[in-house]
Amino acid sequence: MARIVTGYAVTIVLAFFLIPCIGYSSQSDVADGQDDQSTRASIAAVQYAYRDYSQIRDALLGIQGQHSDISRVFDIGDSWEKTQGIADRDIIAIKISDNVAVEEDEPEVLIMALHHAREWSTSELALMIADNLTDSYGNDSRTSWLVDNREIWIVPVVNPDGLDYALAHDQWWRKNRHHNSDGSYGVDLNRNYNGSENGDSAGAWGGAGSSHVTTDEIYCGEYAFSEPETCAVRDLVKGHDFSVAIDLHSYGQWVMWPWGYTNATTVDDPDLQKIGKDFAALNGYHPAQSIALYPTTGDTIDWMYGSANIYAFCFEVGLEFHPMKSDNVWGIIHNNMAPAKLAIEVAGDREQRNFTIAHVPSVSRTYSPAGFELTADVTADRGVNSSSVLIRYRHDGQGWLEMPMSKLLGNDTYSAIVPSTTVGSTVEYYFVAKDAGDIQLMSPSYAPYHLYSFTVEPMDGGPIVSFDPPLIVEGSLATVVRANVTNVTGSFEPVFHMRNLSLDVDSGISMSVSGQNYSCEIAPGLPLGGYRTWLTIESNSSTMWSSDLHRLSVVDRVAPVIERHTVNQVLFGSVDVTVSCYDVYGVESVLVVYNLDGIPGVLSMDHQSGSFVNGTWHCTVDASDALLFEYRLVANDSRQESRSPSEGGWHHFNLSQEIPEMQPVAIVSSVIIIATAAVVARSRRR
User: Fold this and answer.
1) Which of 81, 316, 320, 538 does the annotation list as catalytic?
2) Does residue 402 have an active-site annotation?
3) Does the predicted model carry a pTM greater than 0.85?
4) Which CATH number fits domain 464-555: 2.60.40.10, 3.40.640.10, 2.60.120.10, 3.10.20.600?
5) How far is the C-alpha of 371 from the C-alpha of 415, rounded, in Å?
């Protein structure tokens, strides 16, 4: 250890690390599926396989590949060795949010790890935070809410060159791999930021807790932000509006906040203390202002707080720089998952002033055609933005709707009337409000993953309905639907509803009354297929009662009706056949099947007049010199056919081969035609 610091510094540093470890061992019980005691016990003696830079990069890309809708990997800068063409290592960050491709107006959180090359467990913790947030999304309500309402940035390795060097060559290496002008290597990245930037020269870069000697472990570099790694962090911070940040280090089990260069407290010290102590209550660490460990300048948390008003915290995790046993590493991950999620949540309200939405839900509400009044008491230390108070609601899992809530005079109660819905329906809802400091609050806290809800119950003394709808109807025929309604007062109207499942079209049929009996008729010609049916009792255009849903099938089993037909013989052995047919779904074709003196034939008839639902079809059969025309008629609508005669026999029609008696006019015409033909013939012979 002589190469790390001078002898007296070793004594001081070890004292600061070891003293707070006494009495501050891990003691939290964290939810969200992180506690796997049996697994941890089985691997207690197993060496932990720390990942190098490329493996960590691949792990981040794997998260993006599995959860591309909520995560995206970004290259935010280069390592020192990459800028020199020595290696190809980038500073990689992963953003996690529900609309990850969009910069939304949501509180932003930054979690960083491995400024110091030997603090390997911090990168593993950062990776596991990213894993948990993405894997739990959609499965854990609180985590899902955090991802939906925050923009979370995680940088697992700020010092990639140093990590790979420490893993491969020197496990105690701390700095980056900058080749200094005197031949030495490395700058302490957590001394290379631009100090406190609060106007106090004592907090400036290069002050207390840093060194200008290149070989020292805490060498602060040639100037502030001399290193590409710290520049990458600086640019990320300046390009965003982070509210809370955590910088992960090891070791000592501390939770610390600014300032690190002075015993003087910040103007936000009460808030920082409260949040820091809340973190420590979860991971069992010692909460303190950063200088309690040792003085520092040029570190991340002083710079982020002083330059960008970020509530920045340093977690010194574990009891070793890089514990080698798996159970120790998993213990660090387990103990710090809950504080990380609390940091993400706190980013939306750092001051944590009193702000509440109080509501007493009920599991059921009596049907009312006027709707359902819902109230909530909204109070805030900073005052309530009344125009922001609203209720979001939905009926039976349909799309969310929202409406503003009105403040009742003289108190803090806000009210809204959610539109009525049918008896038996479920209404789900939650409240949203902002205080005068633009802090948003929901009730329940993690809505819409947690919700209030109630079921709509019948009115006292409401309708008693006997309703037995048909399950199958013949589409070609009219069908009567009946219901008996009693125990209803006032004006009301039963309505029979049908929803065509293939077209997703609703229709309602009002029922006529005879005493307490109501009925309506399903007209023939409905589109064939499946329907949902139900009965409602309507009053003043609102539904006061609704039946269960039923299934209805509309089928067509009725063949076309051959109403009448005629057969007429015309000159030269031709027979005209005319048929009238009816089918509510339309006649597709009509055929005449015949025998002429025993010789069979089939002829398709042409549509002549009317519609295909109710019209006539016609054809002319060449009878030649036959004496007997036997025939049957066949009509079909693509599903079934009808015949005439229906019993399968034949219609009979006797044909005449005699030339009909000619009338005088016809005789004269014939003589003229013959004489003219003779004259033409003689003229041709000449």
Assistant:
1) 316
2) no
3) no
4) 2.60.40.10
5) 13
